[in-house]
Amino acid sequence: MQSDVRTKLIEAFSTANGTFISGQQIADYIGCSRTAVWKHIEDLRTEGYVVEAVRNKGYRIITTPEKVTANEIQLGLQTKILGKKVHYEESVETTQKIAHKLSNEGAPEGTLVVAEEQKGGKGRLMRPWYSPKYTGVWMSLILRPSIPFHQAPQLTLLAAVAVVQAIENITELKPQIKWPNDILINRKKVTGILTELQAESDRIHSVIIGIGMNINQKQTDFPEELQDIATSLAIAGGQNISRAKVIQEVLMRLEALYELYLAEGFLPIKGLWESYAVSLGQEIKATTVNETIVGKALGITDAGVLLLEDQNGKVHSIYSADIHI
Ligand code: BTN
Fold this sequence. Notes:
binds biotin; alpha+beta; 3 domains
């Protein structure tokens, strides 16, 4: 976890928003000496930041390194809770495992775990999640909502809406959601979401929302088995995108939706989710552990369950399945 001093330093630069901020102002903000400020700025430089220093004006950040460290994420991040604590790693097995551990140790709500690569990334239904270095966003977020256990899947749907809105906001692309939580562009998967719970009887300790986003991969970067079904924002939009910017945008959207959800419940989120959903009203195939059902996707329930009407007019509630559109 990065130090509080570093968080405050980045906050100070964020507030200055690209203009100069004096060493004294930074020192006052952090609560340290000007010599200490100078030392912290030298640390930033060794990490690849270009910091301009002008006598009688102060400091300003010119460029940031293209990584997704806590600094990159927090510089310009306009949230109240999400991402205020960032745990960054260059390489991990899975960010989910780290988030679970931090959660057990009492990490505050909004703590984000992010890595440049995952060697054992986890997908839904025990599948692996391909997470190569520096090209995607691999992150897990700790939330601690006071909601009953059975409502937790609603947060997965909420996260999917946040991702769609974030992509729409920073690109010209029009992503869609395939139930429950695949984000598609041109019918290929660009993002997957894995939600895991820490709970005791009906009490939720935390919800760990894992989000995997393909950002700057080229089509040939994907392994053969994913070539036809996966895409990235760069492939779909024709240009590379700052991964830190994507993370910031997702966190900001997620926080706004999470606040809405805590204030007004699932209904407004459900409406948004349905407006982005692919294949609602159309025929799809759902493969559950027991059977394959072909039918019309009617919508989702308040608990986020998919309703599927088969050829005989029988409506099936789908709790977990692979969907083919
Ligand atoms: C899916 O199968 O669609 C869900 C994929 C979720 C992948 C993300 S990447 C960050 C977090 N860490 C993991 O190991 N999995 C999730």
